[in-house]
UniProtKB/TrEMBL annotation:
Gene3D superfamilies from the UniProt entry: UbiA prenyltransferase
Reaction(s) catalysed by this chain's protein: an all-trans-polyprenyl diphosphate + 4-hydroxybenzoate = a 4-hydroxy-3-(all-trans-polyprenyl)benzoate + diphosphate; 4-hydroxybenzoate + (2E)-geranyl diphosphate = 3-geranyl-4-hydroxybenzoate + diphosphate
General function of this protein: Catalyzes the prenylation of para-hydroxybenzoate (PHB) with an all-trans polyprenyl group. Mediates the second step in the final reaction sequence of coenzyme Q (CoQ) biosynthesis, which is the condensation of the polyisoprenoid side chain with PHB, generating the first membrane-bound Q intermediate.
Protein name, per record: 4-hydroxybenzoate polyprenyltransferase, mitochondrial
Database matches in InterPro entries: HB_polyprenyltransferase-like (IPR006370), Prenyltransferase (IPR039653), UbiA_prenyltransferase (IPR000537), UbiA_prenylTrfase_CS (IPR030470), UbiA_sf (IPR044878)
GO annotations of cellular component type: mitochondrial inner membrane
Membrane topology: Multi-pass membrane protein
Required cofactor names: Mg(2+)
Main enzyme class: transferase
Record-stated family: Belongs to the UbiA prenyltransferase family.
Listed pathway(s): Cofactor biosynthesis; ubiquinone biosynthesis
Cellular compartments annotated: Membrane; Mitochondrion inner membrane
Length: 393
């Protein structure tokens, strides 16, 4: 209150009475302020006392925009109770910060109920790229298995699409449960539900049970051969998060896991496996995963070194582009070996992969993420080529 009085005094001195609202403001301050002891009032014999307060006010630096947390964003993420007022010391009335806050909100923040939002974040429903990367090998395989001249089985495409959402979510839940003590030490992952304390491990185990139960419902709609093959993939799903602790090649293990659908999709249609067609397709998917997940791993390489976990990004180091170029070439070659006439589309997919490798800035987290997300288009190009090849053959 003393500071406000000093500010009023300074404004009155400068305005020479021109500012008419000042008397009313002074009376309002007097009515609101408690009776202050004499020691808190300005020194009567020191005309510069008020000025010192004004100068101190001027020297207070403004709060940087990067340090401001919008309550709206915290509410949306389920990290701040609804009954907390928006008039928080962490909030800002500046309209310039609002577009940035809104840009960070996803469809999960806008449409999922608040109580369910942490579980949606746990399943990465706000980041669908992982679902696309898991689904594309399934779609490739189902389409290759279609009869020449026919469309692929639409029911199977829908079932495997739903299965990709559930299995990817279950894999993320397992990963976050096992890595919760690591995630809170890594900048990119410390806001995840377990690392931040929004969810407890017991809640995560319950949610995992629901995901697996729904996945079982989809698996039971397939033939017996596919049920056994699909259930065996859970060994890979549950063990993958541990690989970064033991080997510099967890991305290769992820390739085995994420491309299991290349085996399963064919089996769901044919009730068997044709090694001459499916093994090259599976190999192509593994090499593709080594490309995109190595790029992805470069986002965390500094944190991984501190925490002590391993990745191909650390294994390859400055030679990363040479390594992933080789894996990209192996991916394209394996696709060609699968034996279907979609070579113009393979060339387009190869060009997309070459663009990723040649232009990625491995020292930029944002650019690594941009190139990683672009792989949904690589998968779409391969799928389009296979579909075209089946329709014209």
């Amino acid at each position: 209150m003393a500071l406000l009085r000093a500010a009023v005094s300074e404004l009155r001195r400068r305005g020479r009475g021109a500012l008419t609202p000042l008397p009313a403001l002074s009376s309002l301050l007097s009515s609101l302020s408690p009776r202050s002891p004499a020691s808190t009032r300005p020194e009567p014999n020191n005309p510069h006392a008020d000025r010192r307060h004004v100068i101190a006010l001027r020297r207070c630096p403004p709060l940087p925009a990067s340090a401001v947390l919008a309550p709206e964003l915290l509410h949306a993420r389920g990290l701040l109770p609804r009954h907390w007022s928006h008039a928080s010391p962490l909030s800002t009335s500046s309209s310039s910060s609002r577009p940035a806050d809104k840009a960070q909100l996803t469809w999960v923040d806008k449409w999922i109920p608040e109580a369910a939002r942490p579980y949606a974040m746990l399943a990465r429903l706000d980041k669908p790229i992982g679902t696309w990367l898991l689904a594309w090998p399934c779609m490739w395989s189902i389409t290759i298995a279609a009869m020449p001249g026919d469309l692929p089985d639409l029911k199977m495409l829908a079932l495997f699409g739903c299965g990709a959402v559930l299995l990817r979510g279950a894999g993320c839940t397992v990963n976050d449960l096992l890595d919760r003590d690591i995630d809170n030490k890594v900048e990119r992952t410390r806001s995840r539900p377990f690392a931040s304390g929004v969810l407890t491990p017991l809640q995560g185990v319950g949610f995992l049970g629901i995901q697996l139960l729904l996945g079982l419902g989809i698996l039971l709609q397939l033939n017996n051969y596919s049920r056994i093959l699909g259930a065996s993939s859970l060994v890979l799903v549950f063990s993958y998060p541990l690989m970064k602790r033991f080997t510099f090649w967890p991305q290769a293990y992820l390739g085995l896991t994420f491309n299991w659908g290349a085996l399963l999709g064919w089996a769901a249609i044919k009730e068997s496996i044709d090694p001459a067609i499916i093994l090259p397709l599976y190999t192509a998917g593994i090499c593709w995963t080594l490309v995109y997940d190595t790029i992805y791993a470069h986002q965390d390489k500094e944190d991984d070194l501190k925490v002590g976990v391993k990745s191909t990004a650390l294994r390859f180091g400055d030679l990363t582009k040479y390594w992933i170029s080789g894996f990209g070439a192996a991916c394209v070659g394996s696709l060609a070996l699968s034996g279907w006439p979609y070579y113009p589309f393979i060339a387009a997919a190869a060009a997309q992969l070459a663009w990723q490798v040649s232009t990625v800035d491995l020292s930029s987290r944002s650019d690594c993420n941009k190139k990683f997300v672009s792989n949904k288009w690589f998968g779409a190009l391969v799928f389009s080529g296979i579909l075209f090849g089946r329709l014209v053959s």
